[in-house]
Amino acid sequence: MTPHEYVLNSPDTFITDALRGFLAANPSISWEPDPGFLHRRRAPDAPRVGVISGGGTGHEPMHAGLIGDGMIDAACPGLVFTSPNALQVTGATRWADQGQGVLHIVKNYTGDVMNFRIARHLLRDEVATDHVLVDDDVATESESGPGRRGTGATIIVEKVCGAAAARGDDLPQVAEIGRRTAQNSRSFAVAYRACTIPGATGPTFDLEADEMEFGVGIHGEAGEDRTARVAASELVGRMLDRIADSLALTAGERMLCLVNGLGSAHPLELSLVFGEVVSNLDARDVVVERSMVGTFVTALDMAGFSITLVRLDDETLDLFDADTTAPAWPARIGRGPARVSEVTFAEPDDAADDGPEAPWLSAFIRRVRDAIDELTALDQQAGDGDFGANMTATLDHFDLPVRGSDADVLRAISTSFLVRAGGTSGAVFGVLFRHLATAFSASDDIAGALRDGTAAALAEIQDLGGADVGDNTMVDALAPASDALTEGKSLSAVADDAEAGAESTRHTTASKGRASYVGENARGVVDPGALVTGWLYRAAAE
Fold it and tell me: Which residue, 94, 93, 107, is CA-closest to 156?
């Protein structure tokens, strides 16, 4: 597996360089170089309990992005996946103390627990302190060992404790609220690709393309099990079974749900996961009252996600909803109850009527469907890689052989391109087949209908995109086909000219369409749109 390549000056300065940019982007946060911690630039207007946290870097936006009024006052960053040292915690605690005491929010990792405890010992005669241990990861739930790791629930504990401190609760009250929230929180995480530590030569663990790691940690730890990938609904069900068992979840309960990206999960993936979570919990008669879907607690660039459930009561809900100025806290929280609605695209009425076979159009569709991998590979080199998928979306649903008059089948193909494909290819091929359908409706002469339909389509396509011959688009095949038809050449010669035009795109670079974005990288590659256009006229000739 190829390791991720980071944007950096040097692995040795990665953290300090990144912190420099973070501070520039967030002027409400300051850096204390000795002993090294981040804190609010302005202390609260009135004395209150201080709340601090920290841990290894690589989990951003936690903890640095959660510094602000209504959340944590200071954060102690360690090296990548390494706990901060006790002197950092001591310095941050002294800074946060306003005479009301300071609460430490600590993830259940040995280094974090130890260094925060040493800091409290060093300050026992100077600052009143207490701590909340966050231990939500059920993947490490066992009677032996250090127990559940602290993961996604950490940011929820930071939120409610920060809000409790902001409203004026004393140190024992803030600590009790934090412990209650931590005890009512459970998480589970999976990964499809391990993370890579900056400067490392490989990922923290290796996975085959069809494998997933079940129960990973946020420090790049491998999971408790390595299994074949399964559908999202099954995967989410397995994860929620573990969480529900650990929480002793019962029907009628109210939950906060956090679906969290571990670094490289796309928002579409996280939204899909959340939909599966809500559907699964709804079947258990469990209501999601509050939801967060996004990337908040990362493991560098790990491709995967975690699910966190937090049992809600009225006080926890109020504190969670309280305002905060922390820059990484989302401006909008999903306020439930969450409901899943079915989402479908309207199916176009693009089926041709029953009737005699349209053999040349059947041959065209078959040839394109048999070449999807080839078309995808070409577009990955010369465009944005979606051409094969668009052809599949457009043509896969047709039963072969297609039946109906040529005009009806052409109209059905046009509708399918315009509705199912989208993008440039959907638009231009939709136009081509629409004009061909119109021409075939007006004439039984295939050569004449091809001539009139092709000429009309060429004019509209050029008007739409401004492409001309030599611009490395489907026009390079369509224009010579139109010329040959106008000159009265045989259909075989028309196909020859269209295919020669498509082949000419191999030796040019695109100046129109998405292929133009890749410039010289497209040289030596046939434009897939021109190639398919040539196949259409070859099917007509044969």
Answer: 107
What is the number of other CB atoms lying within 10 angstroms of the CB of residue 392? 17
Structure tokens at 532: 């398919």
Amino acid present at 77: P
Residue/partner pairs of 243-249 with CB below 8 Å, 24 or more apart: 243/138, 243/186, 243/187, 243/188, 243/307, 243/309, 244/284, 244/309, 245/138, 246/138, 246/141, 246/186, 247/184, 247/186, 247/309, 247/311, 249/284, 249/286, 249/309
Task: Show which residues are catalytic.
Answer: 219
Helix or strand run (H / E) with residue 257: strand 254-261
Name the 3-class secondary structure at 171: helix
**Taking 50 as the threshold, does the pLDDT of residue 512 lie above it?**
no
Cα 28 to chain center, whole Å?
29
Distance between CA atoms of residues 436 and 443, nearest Å: 11
Phi, psi angle pair for 59, to nearest 5°: -105, 10
- Rounded to whole angstroms, the Cα distance separating 136 from 154 reads 8
How do beta strands 74-80 and 37-40 pair?
Answer: antiparallel
Neighbours of 82 (CB within 10 A): 16
Rounded to whole angstroms, the Cα distance separating 71 from 227 reads 38
Burial 169-182 (b: 16+ CB within 10 A, else e): bebeebbebbbbbb
pLDDT for residue 157 is more than 50: yes
Can you state the angle between helices 86-96 and 110-122, rounded to 10 degrees? 50
- From 36, 77, 87, select the one nearest 56 (Cα to Cα): 77
Q: Is residue 467 pLDDT above 90, yes or no?
A: no
Q: Which amino acid is at 196?
A: T
Q: What is the CA 363 to chain-centroid distance, rounded? A: 38
Q: List all residues 6 or more positions away from 536 whose beta carbon is below 8 Å from its beta carbon.
A: 364, 498
Q: Are strands 334-335 and 29-32 parallel, antiparallel or unpaired?
A: unpaired
What pTM, to 2 d.p., does this model score? 0.82
| 211 backbone dihedrals φ, ψ, rounded to 5° | -110, 160
In the predicted model, is pLDDT for residue 522 greater than 70?
no
Q: Which residues of 218-249 are buried (b: 16+ CB within 10 A; e: fewer)?
A: bbbbbbbeeeeeeeeeebbbebbebbbebbeb
Please say whether the beta carbons of 296 and 152 come within 8 A.
yes
